[in-house]
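Changelog-linked ticket: NAP example.
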Amino acid sequence: MKTILVTGASRGIGRETAKWLLEAGHRVIALARSEDKLQQLKNQWPETADILAGDLCETQTYEALSSMLESADLSLDGIIHNAGALLNKPFGETTDADWQYLLDANLMSAVRLVQSCSGRLSPGSHVVFIGSMGGFQGSSKFPGLAAYSVSKGALSILTECLAAELAAGKICVNCLCLGAVQTEMLDAAFPGFKAPVEAHQMGAYIGHFASEAHQFFNGRVLPVSLADPT
Ligand SMILES: NC(=O)c1ccc[n+]([C@@H]2O[C@H](COP(=O)([O-])OP(=O)(O)OC[C@H]3O[C@@H](n4cnc5c(N)ncnc54)[C@H](OP(=O)(O)O)[C@@H]3O)[C@@H](O)[C@H]2O)c1
């Protein structure tokens, strides 16, 4: 049994990833802002699901996470940092606040998360960042997604940097750049678009990847997409 922190576990891909891990017998710390939705995981897996309601754009969330790990003396075998925000807005209309929010939610959250958990990551653990094809170098780009794609592109480079930085502690770091997956985020950004992959399929893939793939990959930014650009 591994203990894995999954962010953005209240809905979409993150919730399906958490469910896959719990069904596989792992312990999951599920983090998101919507406590009521996290509670559903706790109700279904009372022994192995721990929940933490918090906003990854707020420092007190990281303090709460650190004290939760410390008070339960929990070590992590993995982090799946899946929480993220998307903005579909023409570049010329984007504001400083838009850019700051996307960079905070998608990039700085990863920085703060690894910093606050690094002392609790066991040797042999695996950090997985959920990126996007929009942030994969050389992929086709969409109008309206500049702030989102830049924030995910920076997450890709952070992956490579952290893999080097954490190698001495035998911690692997990889980034999965997803193509379109049918979720609320996709519906809100691209109403009517039908993705070729459902959230439960991607959740199973990510859960398995986080549990096993660091035997084969480290510091990799991997496209997970049936087609580019989607
Ligand atoms: N769906 C796609 O087509 C697609 C494609 C490429 C990449 N991705 C990436 O895959 C990841 C999951 O996407 P999704 O489609 O499942 O999105 P989603 O349905 O919008 O779910 C996002 C999750 O992140 C949480 N979250 C967002 N902001 C947060 C914050 N500030 N603090 C804590 N939790 C936060 C949300 O929970 P609360 O609202 O409860 O906090 C929710 O659980 C994202 O990183 C996204 O960029 C998705």
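Closing comment: Example verified and attached. The chain has one domain: 3-224. The CA atoms of residues 75 and 119 lie 9 Å apart.
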